[in-house]
Design goal:
Strand content: 15-25%
Radius of gyration: 16 Å
Distance between the termini: 22 Å
Number of helices: 8
Order of helices and strands: EHEHEHEHEEHEHEHH
Bound molecules: D-xylitol-5-phosphate, zinc ion
Number of strands: 8
Helix content: 25-40%
Strand order of the largest sheet: 1-8-7-6-5-4-3-2
Largest sheet: 8 strands, parallel
Length: 225
């Protein structure tokens, strides 16, 4: 099964609730990009916006913390209504951060940047509820998908399966109906998409197209004639 997680980064921040409502019928999760202008050169939203959105939707909030010090904010995001929080392996202190997220009742995610080798996440596969392989350099929506990350996605899938671990494998960056099959073929099962969804006049249809393109690459999917 695939999950589609529209990223609100590409939505109209002036009418976020409406944007989320428009995509909700085709969304499994809502991906919320939190940027601190330090870990990445951009600044986005924090717990107050998550709390406001929480009043408008029951969707699972998948909060992607592109922050140097995510530990200072996990509790605030939990109280604001986050369901999952994903921290980056590049900021260090990984075991403690994943443990703290779980203690707070969050699903604990671990993200890895395109240039960071697989070995950085290997020790934590059993501790994380989700592994997020970035397929662009984090910081901005609308960038080009980096196909060179595909082997790392495949390696992560292989290791999760080999060890019998049930962590979700998510990809984020440049995902659209053209790139979805490749990431699903490599083993991703949660697809984040921002500009491909919210840049479309009918975001729910864009989400549906990405899902259907990805589903065709699932193991055992019927081959198109
Ligand atoms: C990038 C963010 C992504 C972003 C993806 O740093 O983590 O979630 O919204 O946007 P697209 O789908 O436009 O590449
Ligand atoms: Zn993201």
């Amino acid at each position: 099964m695939l999950r589609i997680a529209p990223s609100v980064l590409s939505a109209d921040f002036g009418s976020l609730a409406e944007a989320v409502g428009a995509v909700a019928p085709e969304a499994d999760w809502l991906h919320v990009d939190v940027m601190d202008a330090h870990f990445v050169p951009n600044l986005t939203i924090g717990p107050p916006v998550v709390a406001s959105l929480r009043r408008h939707t029951g969707l699972f909030f998948d909060c992607h913390l592109m922050m140097t010090s995510p530990g200072d904010y996990l509790e605030a995001f939990r109280h604001a209504g986050a369901d999952g929080c994903t921290v980056h392996v590049e900021v260090g202190d990984t075991a403690a951060l994943l443990g703290e997220a779980k203690l707070l009742g969050l699903r604990a995610g671990l993200a890895i940047n395109p240039e960071t080798p697989y070995d950085a996440i290997d020790p934590f596969l059993g501790e994380a509820d989700l592994i997020l392989c970035m397929t662009v350099h984090p910081g901005f929506g609308g960038q080009t998908f980096m196909a060179e990350v595909l082997p790392k996605i495949a390696r992560t899938r292989a290791e999760l399966d080999r060890r019998g671990l049930g962590a979700d494998l998510e990809v984020d960056g440049g995902i659209d109906e053209d790139t979805a099959p490749a990431v699903v073929h490599a083993g991703a099962r949660v697809l984040v998409a921002g500009s491909a969804i919210f840049g479309d006049e009918r975001p729910w249809e864009a989400a549906r197209r990405i899902r259907s393109a990805g589903e065709k690459a699932l193991p055992g999917a019927p081959i198109d004639s």
